[in-house]
Amino acid sequence: MKESQKRAIIIGTSTGIGRALAKKLSAEGYAVGLTGRFPEKMKELQQELAGESFVRVIDALDLRHATHELSNMIMEMGGVDILVINAGVLHPNPELRWDLEEETIRVNAMAFAGIANLAVRYFLQKNGGCIVGISSVAGHRGSGRSPAYNASKAFMMNYMEGLRQKLSTTPIKVVDVRPGFVDTAMIRGRKGLFGVVSPEKAADDIFRAIQKGKRIVYVPSWWAAVMGVFKRIPESLYHWGYWRYIAWDTKAQKS
């Protein structure tokens, strides 16, 4: 690897946005670090990349091991310029099972914060770098169907805002990516979705946002206007709409 070559690590590259972003960064000349729980999927992805890549098995549920392996990968690659934190889970949880809520919080909030903390300390030593967190438009409001998921995305959004404030006098960038509906296994088969984009389209938007040094990017961009209105809906009206949707969706699933 050339000393001048840019390096990126993506936490969560087995499927979806992470996989597409790995291909995009590789095509743009980056050496890419691939992480995830399934080594066979990462080995397959390596064969599709244009340039050099590295693989580490990282399970976000085991934060201590995840941060240890991430530190080792940074050393193996000779440093990193961009760290993308993409690992996340979504469990529709109408019965409010605690095991599903706990897993969501541990992966989407605890693991995110732990990995972001490591990245901040590393980039402060390096005096530069970019942290990219994949949150969601879901972080703007609560959800009775998956309370922990929406809350965990709100945590990510606020955590990144805090990091931007803390790092505002440094060259370190923190990019909050807020996708809408992206065609991945996480949403496939659900009813009532609109404006669904491909992982490749999302990856292109994310890469442009990194290049432009944006703080917040909606994928697609029109979600910014939609969320501007959605956040202002009174809670009573929001709850009424939720139950209307649940009734419609239940009927649609049975038909």
> CATH-wise, what's the superfamily?
NAD(P)-binding Rossmann-like Domain
**Number of DSSP-assigned strands:** 7
Please give the CATH architecture: 3-Layer(aba) Sandwich
What does the main sheet amount to?
7 strands, parallel
Spatial gap, N to C terminus: 56 Å
Radius of gyration over C-alpha positions, nearest whole angstrom = 18 Å
Strand content: 5-15%
Characterization of this structure:
- There is one protein chain.
- With about 260 residues, the protein is an alpha/beta fold.
- It has a single domain, classed as Rossmann fold.
- It has eight helices and seven strands, in the order βαβαβαβαβαβαβαα.
- It has helices spanning about 15-25, 40-50, 65-75, 100-125, 145-165, 200-210, 225-230, 235-255; strands at about 5-10, 30-35, 55, 80-85, 130-135, 170-180, 215-220.
- A seven-stranded parallel β-sheet has the order 3-2-1-4-5-6-7, with helices on both faces.
- β2, α2 (about 40-50) and β3 form a beta-alpha-beta unit.
- α1 packs across α6 (about 200-210) and α4 packs parallel to α5 (about 145-165).
List keywords for this structure.
255 residues; 8 helices; Rossmann fold; seven-stranded parallel β-sheet; 50% helix; alpha/beta
Concise structural overview:
The chain is an alpha/beta fold and 255 residues long.
